Amino acid sequence: MSPRTRTPRAAAACAPWVRTRLRTAPGASAAFALLVLVTAFLAAAFPRAVDRYEGQGLRHDLGVVEPRRGVLEVSGPQPGLELPVRAREKAVRGATMGAAQRRILRTLPDPVRADAAQSAYGVRTSKGIPASETWFPRPYGLDPSLTYVTQSGLADHAVLRTGSWPKVRGTVTMRTREVEAAVTEATAKALHIERGATVAVPTRGGGTLTVRVTGIVAPKQPEASYWSAEQLLRTPSLVPIPTKETPRYYWTAALLLPPDAAPALLSTTGQPEVYWRLAPDGSGLTSRDVPRLRTAIASLEGGPGLLAMRELAGDTVTVTTDLDEVLAAYEDMRAAIEPVVTVAAVGIGAVAAVVLLMTGGLVAGRRHAELALLRARGASLTGIGGRLLAETAVTAVPAGALGLLLAVLAVGEARLWPAAVGAGAVVVLVCAALPLRTALLHRRHRAHGERDDLATARPSRRRTVAELTLLVLAVGAVVALRRRGTDSEGGTDLLVSAAPVLVALIAAVALVRLYPLPLRLALRSVSRLRGAVGFLSLARAGRSSAAGTLPLLALLVALTTAAFGGSVLAGVADARDDAAVLATGADARISGQGDAVPLPAGLIRAAGEADGVREVVRAQIEYGVALPPAADGAEDAKGATLIGVDPEAYARLARTVGLGTFPADRLKATGARPVKGEPADRDRVLPVLASPSVAQRLGSRPQDLQSLAGDFRVRLAGTVTRTPAVTDSSFMIVDASALTHRQTTALLLTGDHLDARALRAAATKAGEHFSVQLRSEERAAYVDTPMQNGAEQIYLAAIAAGAGYALLAVLLSLLRTAPERTTLLARLRTMGLTSRQGGRLLGFEAMPQALLAAVGGLLVGRATIALLAPGIDLTHLALSTGPGSGLLDTAPLRTDLRSLVLPALGVIVLAAAVAGVQAWWTGRRGSITELRAGDSR
User: Fold this and answer.
1) What is the dihedral of CA 15, 17, 19, 20, to 10 degrees?
2) Pairing assessment for the beta strands 145-149 and 249-256 based on DSSP bridges
C-alpha cells in the first residue's frame, strides 16, 4: 500500500487591514488627515505665538526705555586722597578705566548682557562749575554751569564738523594746566562756543585749568545710550534756580575731554567721579529669562553682584539702574494679558476637542454595522480597538507631525516642547476617540439597533448628576471671575478661564432638555396642515439621535468663543477711542502753554473758518483756584480748576463726546451780567457744576471764590465726573458770561475731516506758544506693543477658528445622517416626491437644530459677555502708551455684533446649503441607484 500523499495546505489569504481601509475610503482619510493637521497646527502654534510675543515684548520694552533709565551705571567717587598722587592719576587714566570696563563686562551675571558698542566709561565732574567768560550767553544774568567729561570712544560715536579731535599733549597729571576738549553742535550753538575758545576752570589750589575747544562734533546716533544716558553730553539745557519767586534760568552744558586727560580733573573743584555706563543688550532675552534677570539686577544693586563689582572697580562704587522697574512693568502687563488670552485658548481648545470627538463618532456611526458584524463573529474588543488604533494612527500621526512642523516654521523664536505637547495631545485624542467609542458601543451584542429619539429620550440619573456638577462648576467659575477678575496670585486659574466654555456647556445641556417641548408643539400644529412635507420633516427632526448634545455643545462653545473674542477686540478699540477723547476733549483742541495763554481773536476766527469745523466751543481755564476749607479745617494746596464756558455750546459738546452730559439750563447765570473790568455784584450767586471731590468741599450753601477771572459766590447746581475741557478730577464749570475778566484760553472743535494743516498754520501764525491736538492723532498714538499685538492676533485667530469649527460641527452633524436621508429621499421619490419637495423636506428637517444652535449661540454669547464683563479689565491690553493711557479707569468688554451674529447666520446658511446640495445630488443620481445600494437604517 502506497503511503498517503500529503497535499500542502494553501496559506490563508488575508488583506492588510490598514491598507485596505485607506484604499476603500481615500477621500474620507484625506479629510480626516486635514482636520488633524489644522488642529495640530493650531495647538502647536498657540504656545509658540505666546512665547514669541512675550519675548518680543520684553525686547521691545528694553529697547524703547530711555537710556538714562536702562543703563547699568557703576560709579564711585574719585580715588581716595590718602593714595599717592601717581596712584590716583593712574587709576583714572584711559588704560586703567578701560581694563576695568572689560573685566566688568566679563563678570556680569547671566542673563545680564551689555552692548559693548554703546557702553562707555570715564571721569566726570559731578558738580557743575560756573564759567565766568563774558562771551557766554546769560538769559537772566547767571553764569552757565559746565560739566567736564572724559568719556571714552568719542571718535567712534561722533563726526567731526569743525576743527580737530581733542588730544593730550604728553602725559597729563594733576599739575597740568591746559587740556583740549570738544563740544557738540547743539552746545556750540546755544552757548556761542567757537573753535579755539578757552574756558578757565578753577582748581583747588586757587589756580586755573584752561580747557581749549579744538573741535565741534555731531553725534552719529543721538538717541543711543552713548549720548542719551546723560543727555547733557549732546544737548545743553536751561535750568531754573530753586526759588519761590519768579524762576530764573541758567545754561548747563558739557565739554568732552580725551580719556587720558582725566588726571587734570582731579585738581578741579567739580568733585570728579568715575563711572562705567553699561548699555543693556536684550537681543537674546526671552520671557523665561525675566525671573533670573530680576534676580541678577537685584544682586548687582545690593548683593553678591555688587561685591564683585567693588572688587573690580573699587570698594566705594555703587550700581544704579531702573531696569528693575522696567521689568516689573513688563511682568505686570504680561500678568494682566495672560489670563485674557487663556480664556480664548481654553475656548478654542474645547471646541476643537469636541469636533475631533464628533469626527470619531461620525466614523464609528458609519462603520457600526461592519464592527457589529465582526463582534458577532467573535472578534474581541481589544482586537477591534487595536486595528482601529493602527488605522487611525497611520493617518493622524503624520498629519500631527506635519502640523507641528508647519507651526515651527510659521512661528519662530519660541520653545519646541510646548508645541510638541500640544500637537501630541491632538494626536492622542484623535487616536483614542475611535477605539474607545467603539469599545463603549460594542461591549455587549445587540440583535438590532435601538431607537434613540431626541424627543422621547429620558436622561439617566448619572447624566443628571453630571449635568448638576457642571452647573455648579460653571456658577463657581462665573462668580469667581466676576469677583476677582482674571488676575490670580498663583498664576492663571484654568477654572476661571474656562468660564465661557462652562456656560456654553450648561446652555447646551439645558437646550437639549428643552428642545423636545417646542418641537412637539410645532409637530401638533403642522399635523393639521394638508401637506406632508412639514409634518414629515418635523417628525424626522424629533427622531434625530439623543446624542445631539455633542454637536450642539461644539456649536455653542464655538459661537461663544467667537463672540467673546470679538467683544475683547471691540473693548480694546473703544477703550482707545475713549482715551483719545479724554486727552483732547473734542475732535480737535487749540490751546496755549498750560492753558494759561489767552488766544488771539485772529486765531479763534481762523479756527472757525477752517475746513471740516462744525462748531467751536470757547473755554476759559484757570488752574489752582482755592477752595473753601473742609469741615475739619484742612485746606487743599492744589486747588481746583475753574472752567468758564458758554452753557449751550458746552452742553452740546459734552453730549457729542459723551463726557459729563448736563442740561444747559442748569448752568446759566441769571441777573445782570458784570461789566468787563469792573467788580461783580457780591450778592450775585453763580450756579456751578463740579466734580464729586469739589462738590463735597462746596457743600449745599453758597461759597465765596477768588480767582484771576474775578471774585464771586457760587452755589452747587450738580456734579459730573468727567468734562471735555480738562482731564483733572477736581474742577468747576461756570457760565463764562458771568466772569469779570473774560478771556479764551482753549478752543474745543468738533467736525468731520478737520483740516489739520490749516489749524496748525493758524496756530503757528498766532505764536509759538499755541499747539493743536487732534483726536485722530491721539488715537493713532496708541501703538500696539508686540505683546498687545500678539494678544490681539490670537483673538482674531480665535474668532476665525471659532467660526470655522462651528461650521465644521454643522457639517459633521449633517454628514452623520446623510446616508439615511439619501435613502429616505430615494424611497419617497418612488412615491411621487418631487425634487423641490425633497429639498424642502431636508431643509425643514435641518432647520430646527440649526436654529436652536444659532439662537442659542446668540443668547449664550451675549449672556457670557454680560456675565463676565465685570471681571475682565482690558486696560493693559488696550493702553500702554499715549496721552490718555493714565486717564482711563477701566476698559470693559463691549459686544461686537459682527462676531456675534455672522457665525450664527453662517450656521443656518450652511445647514440650508448642505440640505439643498444633498437633495440636488440625490435627484441627479436617481432613486434606483440609491435603492440598489441596500437598505440603510
Assistant:
1) 70
2) parallel
Q: What angle do CA 375, 379, 381 make, to 5 degrees?
A: 80
Rounded Cα gap, residues 380 and 439, in angstroms: 10
Q: 253, 258, 265, 260: which is closest to 185 by C-alpha? A: 253
| DSSP string covering 67-114 | HHHH-EEEEEESSPTTS-HHHHHHHHSHHHHHHHHHHHHHHPPTT--E
Give the span between the Cα atoms of 343 and 215, in whole angstroms: 61
Q: What are the CA-CA distances from residue 702 to residues 623, 625, 718, 732, 810 (Å)?
A: 21, 16, 13, 14, 69
Determine the 3-state secondary structure of 397 from DSSP: helix
Query: What is the per-residue pLDDT across 142-195, written as a single tens digit (0 to 9) for each?
Result: 999 999 999 999 999 999 999 999 999 888 999 999 999 999 999 999 999 999
Cβ of 907: how many Cβ atoms within 10 Å?
Answer: 25
Question: What phi and psi, each to the nearest 5 degrees, are found at residue 637?
Answer: -70, -30
Residue 107 in contact with residue 308, Cβ under 8 Å? yes
CA end-to-end distance (rounded Å), the chain: 62
What is the β-pairing status of strands 710-719 and 685-690?
parallel
Residue written as grid cell 514669541: 52
The reported pTM is: 0.77
Looking at the DSSP bridge assignments, the partners of residue 615 are 750
773 near 584, Cβ under 8 Å?
A: yes
Each residue's pLDDT tens digit, 796-854: 888 888 778 877 877 777 776 667 777 777 777 667 666 677 767 776 777 777 787 78
**Cα–Cα distance, 533 to 548 (Å, whole number):** 23
Angle 26-64/323-366 helices, nearest 10 degrees?
A: 170
Report pLDDT digits (tens) over 347-388.
888 888 888 887 777 777 667 667 777 777 767 777 777 777
DSSP letter string, 25-70: -HHHHHHHHHHHHHHHHHHHHHHHHHHHHHHHHHHHHHHHS-HHHH
| Cα 238 to Cα 188: distance, rounded to the nearest angstrom | 14
Which residues touch 846 (CB under 8 Å, ≥6 apart)? Answer: 541, 814, 911, 912, 914, 915
DSSP state of 545: B
Sign of the dihedral defined by the CA atoms of residues 219, 221, 227, 232, in that order: positive
Q: Is the peptide bond before 111 cis (omega within 30 degrees of 0)?
A: yes
Nine-digit cell at 76?
Answer: 564711585
